[in-house]
Amino acid sequence: MITGPTFEEMLHPQKINASIRAQAVAALKDDPLNPINLFNITWRDASNEIMHVVLPKELTGVDAEIVVMFGKYFPSGSHKVGAAYSILLEKELFGEVDPQVNTLVWPSTGNFGIGGAWVGGRMGCKSLVVLPEGMSKERFQRIENYGASVIKTYGSESNVKEIYDETHRLRNSDPNIRILNQFQEMGNYRFHYHVTGNTIVELAAELQAKGIGNGKIAAFAWAPGSGGTNAAADRIKQVFPDAKNVALEPIQCPTLYNNGYGSHDIQGIGDKHVTWIHNVWNIDAVMCLDDMTCKKALQALTEQAGIDALVKRYGVDEAVALRLSTLFGISGMCHVLGAIKTAKYYGLGKGDVVVTAAADSIDRYYSVMDEMRAQFGALDEAAAVGRIEGTFHAATTDWVLDGTRMNRERWHNLKYYTWVEQQGKTVQELDAQRDPAWWEGHQQKVAAIDARLNELRQGQPAQA
C-alpha cells in the first residue's frame, strides 16, 4: 500500500491530514525509519516555513541576495529523496512496480541512491543501489544502514556510463528487476517542476514580505546531476520570464561547456552526459567552477578557524556562521559559488534575488574534509581569511558560455549519443523534446497522478 504524499502535499504539507502531519513531524527526529516520514518530503519545516538561508553579504561579497534552500532536513538528509519517492510513486500507481515481486535498482552517484534506499525500504521494496566505488564512504554507509544492497562500479562522480552498463546487466539477468533511472524518469522532473519550482516562486513573495528582494527571482543557479532540478527553472520562468537559468559544471568535466570529459570531485553533479529529463532549451548560460575551489570553500565554512574568521574579521553573526557550517556539502559550495558568479556576470545588485539549493550537507563529507586537512593542513586564522577571500570574494566571470540558439541546439544533440545509441530511445522521441509542448505535457501530468493517489486513498474513481 502506498502511504506517501501527493505532489500537492509535498508542496504544501499543511494540506496533509492534520493527524498524519503531526505524526510525521514527530517521527522525523525520533523515528527516522518510520514510513510516516514519507510525509516529511517537502521543502517546508514543521512550521510550514521554507527551509532556506539568505547568505550574509560579508561572505558573498555581492549586493544581490544569494538565497539557498537546503535539503539537510529532508528524510535521508537530501532533497533527492523527493525525486526517488516521486519516481517510485508513479511506478506503483500505474502498475509498473509490485513491491512483493520486483527488486528496485537505483543507479546513482550518491544522494539519489541514498534516497532510493530509504524510500524503497519505507514502501516495502527490496532495493539495490549501483554506485561508483570512488564516492565518499559516508554514502555507502547510509545506503547499507537503510537496508539496501550496493554494487560498486568503476570510477567516481563522472563515470555514469559504467553505471548504465551494470544496470543493463542486471536487467538482463532477472525479469523482476526494475530500473528506476533518475536520469531518465520524468517523475524526477515532475517533483522539481511542481514542488521545488513552486516553492521557489512562493519563496520570492515570502522574502519580499520580510524586506528581502523585490518579489521576483532574478536568477536560478544549479548544477546538473540528473538534470531534475532544472525543471524548477521551467516553473520559475513561467512566473518570472526574465529570470536567468544558469547551469553549473566542473571545470574538470565541462560537458555542456565544450563537450568535455574527465573526472572531478564535486559529488552529485557533472555526470559526463546530457540527461533525458534535462530541458536544455531553457538554459541561459553554463558556468564552470573548479572542484578544488569548492572543497576549499567548504573547508573554510566548516572548520573552526573559518567560523571564527567570519565572525571576528567579517562581522558575521556567530549564530549565522555556526549554522552555515552545518548546511552544505561539496555540491552546495558549487551552487553558492555559482550563484555569486551569476550575480557578478549579470550585474545583479540590491533587490535582486539569486536562488540556489544545497542537495545535502557536511555530514556526507567528513572523510573528504579529512583528506583536505591531510593535503593542505588545518586552517589557522590567516589561512581561513585567505580561503574566504580566494574562494567566495574572488569568484570570477570566466568559463561562461551563453545559451544561444546554436548552443542549445548542440546541448540537445548531445543527448543522441547516450539516449539513442546506448539507451534505446528513438530519434523521434528525441526530436519531440524540441517542442515546449512536450515538457508542458509532462508538467500537466502532476494533477492526474495526484488524482490517482487520492482515488486509491478513497477507494473510488477520481472524477474527471
Describe the structure.
The chain is an alpha/beta fold. The protein has a domain at 48-76 and 186-402: Rossmann fold, CATH 3.40.50. The chain is 48% helix and 12% strand. It has a 7-stranded mixed sheet. Strands 5-4-3-6 form a 4-stranded parallel sheet, with helices on both faces. Helix 10 links the parallel strand 8 (244-250) and strand 9 (285-289). It is globular.
If strands are numbered along the chain, what order do they take across the biggest sheet?
1-2-10-7-8-9-11
Helices and strands, in order, run as: HHEHEHEHEHEHEHEHEHEHHHHEHHEHHH
* DSSP helical segment count: 19
Q: What structural category characterises the helix and strand content? A: alpha/beta
Could you tell me the radius of gyration in angstroms? Answer: 21 Å
Mean residue pLDDT: 94
Architecture of the domain at 48-76 and 186-402, according to CATH?
3-Layer(aba) Sandwich
Pick out the low-confidence regions.
none
Task: Give the proportion of residues in helices.
Answer: 40-55%
What form results from the Cα inertia axes?
A: globular
The percentage of residues in β strands lies in: 5-15%
Any idea of the CATH class of the domain at 48-76 and 186-402?
Alpha Beta
